[in-house]
């Protein structure tokens, strides 16, 4: 089984090595490491690890948190591509085919943000009614009739309990949601990450920057 493990760890030499050793001692094979956020003496890393099917994921948490200062933020099954497409490659694809830019954005974002799906939705100007502009293959089929948090002026974590109402299908499996404007406040990119982890400020900044670049290219 392959899992995505998000950890908060002290930003000091040797900590990541100690973490790798602790996970390896439990039979975990680290396939990739991505730095999500760094600052104030700590770092947030995403580790894709492979475990024997006979070993429960709880072992990963126990092993990781046995390393001094390490906290596991979340662990979930991972089925994404290991050779994650980087932002530059997506931007280059959009530049080559600007007429498909919004669709390429929706299809490419899940791999960049280790999420399950993404879609682009747009307010129609008739109250809070919206239409779907583009979506990735795994996006929920349920379409929103209205999204009262549109227009959106900046990238944000969507909290259905805090006023960001969305279709129930979008929040299945404890899905974490984030959204960013795509060129104008009426159009938003929505990203879903079932089972977490929650979107961090650095990820919102990346999402906003990427959506802005694509919108500029598309015009």
From TrEMBL:
<dbReference type="InterPro" id="IPR045865">
    <property type="entry name" value="ACT-like_dom_sf"/>
</dbReference>
<dbReference type="InterPro" id="IPR002912">
    <property type="entry name" value="ACT_dom"/>
</dbReference>
<protein>
    <submittedName>
        <fullName>ACT domain-containing protein</fullName>
    </submittedName>
</protein>
<feature type="domain" description="ACT">
    <location>
        <begin position="4"/>
        <end position="86"/>
    </location>
</feature>
<dbReference type="Pfam" id="PF01842">
    <property type="entry name" value="ACT"/>
</dbReference>
């Amino acid at each position: 089984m392959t899992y995505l493990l998000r950890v908060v760890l002290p930003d000091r030499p040797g900590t990541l090595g100690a973490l790798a050793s602790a996970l390896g001692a439990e039979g975990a094979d680290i396939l990739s490491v991505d730095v999500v956020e760094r600052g104030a003496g700590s770092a947030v890393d995403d580790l894709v690890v492979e475990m024997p099917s006979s070993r429960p994921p709880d072992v990963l948490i126990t092993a990781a948190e046995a390393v001094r200062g390490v906290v596991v933020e979340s662990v979930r099954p991972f089925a994404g591509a290991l050779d994650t497409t980087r932002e530059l490659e997506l931007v280059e694809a959009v530049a080559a085919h600007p007429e498909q830019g919004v669709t390429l954005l929706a299809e490419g974002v899940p791999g960049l943000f280790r999420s399950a799906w993404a879609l682009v939705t747009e307010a129609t100007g008739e109250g809070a009614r919206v239409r779907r502009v583009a979506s990735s293959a795994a996006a929920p089929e349920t379409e929103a009739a209205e999204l009262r948090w549109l227009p959106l002026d900046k990238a944000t974590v969507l909290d259905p309990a805090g006023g960001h109402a969305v279709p129930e299908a979008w929040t299945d499996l404890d899905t974490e949601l984030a959204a960013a404007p795509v060129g104008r406040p009426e159009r938003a990119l929505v990203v879903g990450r079932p089972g977490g982890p929650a979107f961090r400020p650095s990820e919102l900044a990346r999402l906003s920057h990427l959506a802005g670049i694509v919108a500029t290219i598309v015009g």
